[in-house]
Amino acid sequence: MSVDVRTEPEGSELVVGLLPREDPATGRDASRDARRTETVTACVFADDLLDGESMLMPLNAAPDVRVLPAGRHTEADVVVVVAASVTGSLLDSMEEISARAENPRQRMVLVSGPLRGPQLARVVGCGVVSILPRAGITPRVVLRAVLASGTGGAVVPEAVTRWLLDEARAFQQTILAGQGLNAGGLTDREVDVLRLLAEGHDTGHVAAELNFSERTIKKIIQNLTGRFGLRNRTHAVTYALRAGAI
Prior knowledge:
By secondary structure, the chain is α/β, with parallel strands linked by helices.
């Protein structure tokens, strides 16, 4: 599946790393003094200075966003990437930024022209959680996307959401199912065990219900908790519920 298929010329690069606005009288970030709570740190990279500046302005004005210099992008909660088109060189730059991140919670916001399906896969791999169309973008939308992305949310077009769901379904059908696995990487037997445990049954009842020895049931639980780094059977049940396996 393609998303807004359009052929774009190669050559876009992130050539501008933008800095916070400074008060010319003091040389300090003019918006920082007014902030009492700094919840999201952000950096902006763009392939065009004016476009990048237009994205930077609403962030500098927001009391709950602190813009970091481009040289400190490894620390940022959110990296905003602004580009006229999505090309191979742009994706290479984004992957490099992602690979250098020191903040484990870092996510990206991409403001760009249309994406093609194969490009979207690489974009997601870079940690992009919000995608905004460059045409007609407003400062309020940029700010909302940065705040959402920095606090566990996302802003994603409907077409992109559909593509991601289709890809997830294809992965389930072709990869997991082909290996006899369910959602979360669990086997059918593990799912059966965890479903009964989730209903409140003990290992003896689970063994009788599935026609296994209780020792086998305990071994199944031990194997899956070890494989996924889970603490105990309760943690395993919780994992299966969150993964949608039961």
